C-alpha cells in the first residue's frame, strides 16, 4: 500500500537544438514550483536533461508543459516510485552541456550512433568483432556490467575522450557497442567517436535500465546490479531494488561487505572517501549526520 508521501520520479532527456534555452528557465522553474514538483532540470543549447518528483498530477502537468514546445513534443520520461520525497526543492539550471563531456562542439543533434533495442543487444555484443564499452564511471561499473564489456576506468565522463584516443583505434576497433544507465551518455559518446573516425558505432536504446526492464533474467548477459541516481541506489532485473546503500559523504554505492571495512562510519565515510576526508570535512559531515538523526527523531 502506497503512503501519502509516495512520489512519482520521472527522468527525462532529449538532445535537440535549443538556442533560446536561457529564456526558458524562469517560466519553467515557476511552473514546476506552482505544480509542486521538485528536482533538477538542466537546459543547454544542445537540449534538456533532468529528474523531477511529485504527485502523479504534478509530474504529468510538467511533462505536458514541456511537450507544448514542438521541439520537445516527443520527449519521453522513465518513471519510478519513491516512498518519500527524494528532492528538497526545484532547480532549473543553465549549462553548456546537458551531460558534461567537456566538448560542447560534440553534438548528437548532428550525428549519433545506431540505436539497438534491448531485444537485439545480446546478438550484437556476442559478436567477437564487436568492442563492447561501458561508458559509465568506474564506481558504477564495479557493481555491475555486461559480459565482455571494457571498463574505461574513468572517474568522470570528461575522461572518456582521452580513453578513446589512448586505447581505441578506428582501424582496429571497427565495430563498437556502447551502453550506459539510461542512454544519454551513449548518445554523446557515440557522437564523439564518429567524429574521431569510428564508422560503426552502436548504442543500447534506453540504456541498461530498459534492458533490465525488458530482457528476462534467463536470457540476460548482464552481471551484477545497476547503479541509479535515486533512493533505490541500485536495481536488478525487473528494476527491483538492489542490495546497495549510498555513502552519505561521497555518494558512492556501498555493499554490506563494504560496511564491515574499518574505513566505514555510518553517515561519515566509506573506503572510497576515507583517505580524502579532511578533519574539517569530517566535522561538517558529523554535524550534518547529527542533524539528520535529530530530524528523524522529531518526526517519529
Automatic annotation (TrEMBL):
GO terms for molecular function: oxidoreductase activity, acting on paired donors, with incorporation or reduction of molecular oxygen; transferase activity. It catalyses: uridine(34) in tRNA + AH2 + O2 = 5-hydroxyuridine(34) in tRNA + A + H2O. SUPFAM superfamilies: Rhodanese/Cell cycle control phosphatase. Keywords: Oxidoreductase, Transferase, tRNA processing. InterPro entries: Rhodanese-like_dom (IPR001763), Rhodanese-like_dom_sf (IPR036873), TrhO (IPR020936), TRHO_N (IPR040503). It is an enzyme of class 1 (oxidoreductase). GO terms for biological process: tRNA modification. Residues 126-220 form the Rhodanese domain. Its EC number is 1.14.-.-. The keyword Repeat does not apply. The keyword Transmembrane helix does not apply. HAMAP family: TrhO. Catalyzes oxygen-dependent 5-hydroxyuridine (ho5U) modification at position 34 in tRNAs. Belongs to the TrhO family. This is tRNA uridine(34) hydroxylase. It comes from Cylindrospermum stagnale PCC 7417. The gene is trhO.
